[in-house]
Structure formats: C-alpha cells, structure tokens
C-alpha cells in the first residue's frame, strides 16, 4: 500500500498539533502529557521505566519531568536507593490529568466522526502490529 506512511505522518503531525493546542491552556505539550499518562496508568515510576516505554533516551524524559516539576504536576519520591528517582503525580497533576483526559476524549470523538466502529477497531488493532514490526526490524526490545 504505497503512500501509507506519508498519510500516517500527515495524520500524526496534525493530531500532535491539535493535542498541543488543547493542552496549551495548562502550559503542557503532548510530550509532557506522555509522562503524565504513563504515571497515571502505571503508577509511580522511574525515569528508566518511562523512557523504556516510549523508547526515548533517559535525558529526554528527565527534561520533561523537570518541566512537570516546575509546573507542580509531578514530584519525586524516595526509591529503593538514593539514585533511583520515582516520579508520581501531585494532587494538581491528578486534577490536570482528569481535565485534559476529558478534552482528549472529546477530540478523539470528533476526529473519529464518520468512521465506522469496525474501521476504528481495525485501526486500533493494526497500529500496534506496525509498531511491533518496526521495533523487531530495528532490533529493539518489544513490550
């Protein structure tokens, strides 16, 4: 299916732009939201956990976490040893997460308008398969 990736990348960029606009009211970006999303769904986590999940370098996650700390959305809590940094959402972070999540749900509904539930489900199942094939091809660990 020639042109699939071009269409996907155009969609991705548009979606990220929409998400960034939606979150700008909270002084957030989609990249910061990713950290919040991970912590909310997987519980207090280390920087390594988050960077492995998103397949990005630890310094990238460190910068994101520092920005979220400045916004008082996350806080570091003591880990098993002094070097381990465990990050969790603050009360403010929990509230902002809930508000953003509602706005994202509305965005998802709007962008999926006119697309059958069956097509949505097929896409939902297909995208992780593509990611799996990319990760396998690149020799990265697959979760």
Average pLDDT score: 91
How far apart are the first and last residues' alpha carbons, in Å?
Answer: 26 Å
What is the N-to-C succession of helices and strands?
HHEHHEEHH
How are the strands of the largest sheet arranged?
1-3-2
Structural class by SSE content: mainly alpha
**What is the overall shape?**
globular
How many distinct beta strands? 3
List key phrases describing it.
6 helices, Arc Repressor Mutant, subunit A, 3-stranded antiparallel beta sheet, mainly alpha, globular, single chain, 3 strands
Q: Which helices and strands, and how do they pair?
A:
Elements: H1 4-23, H2 30-42, E1 45-46, H3 47-54, H4 58-70, E2 74-78, E3 85-89, H5 91-111, H6 117-138
Antiparallel strand pairs: 1-3, 2-3
Helix pairs in contact: 1-5, 3-4
Description:
The protein is mainly α and 143 residues long. The chain folds into 2 domains: 15-111, Orthogonal Bundle (Arc Repressor Mutant, subunit A); 113-143. The chain is 68% helix and 8% strand. It is built from 6 helices and 3 strands; from the N terminus they run ααβααββαα. It has helices spanning 4-23, 30-42, 47-54, 58-70, 91-111, 117-138; strands at 45-46, 74-78, 85-89. A 3-stranded antiparallel sheet has the order 1-3-2. α1 packs across α5 and α3 packs across α4 (58-70). The longest helix is centred in the last third of the chain and has 22 residues, at 117-138. The chain is globular and about 50 Å long. The two termini are 26 Å apart. The model has no long low-confidence stretch (mean pLDDT 91).
């Amino acid at each position: 299916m020639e042109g699939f990736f071009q269409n996907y990348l155009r969609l991705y960029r548009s979606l990220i732009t929409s998400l960034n606009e939606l979150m700008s009211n909270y002084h957030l970006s989609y990249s910061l939201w990713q950290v919040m999303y991970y912590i909310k769904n997987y519980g207090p986590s280390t920087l390594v956990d988050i960077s492995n999940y998103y397949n990005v370098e630890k310094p990238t996650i460190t910068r994101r976490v520092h920005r979220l700390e400045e916004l008082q959305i996350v806080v570091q809590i003591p880990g098993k040893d002094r070097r381990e940094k465990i990050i969790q959402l603050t009360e403010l972070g929990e509230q902002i997460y809930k508000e953003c999540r509602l706005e994202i749900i509305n965005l998802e509904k709007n962008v999926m308008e006119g697309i059958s539930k069956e097509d949505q489900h097929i896409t939902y199942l297909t995208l992780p398969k593509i990611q799996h094939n990319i990760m396998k091809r690149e020799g990265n660990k697959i979760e």
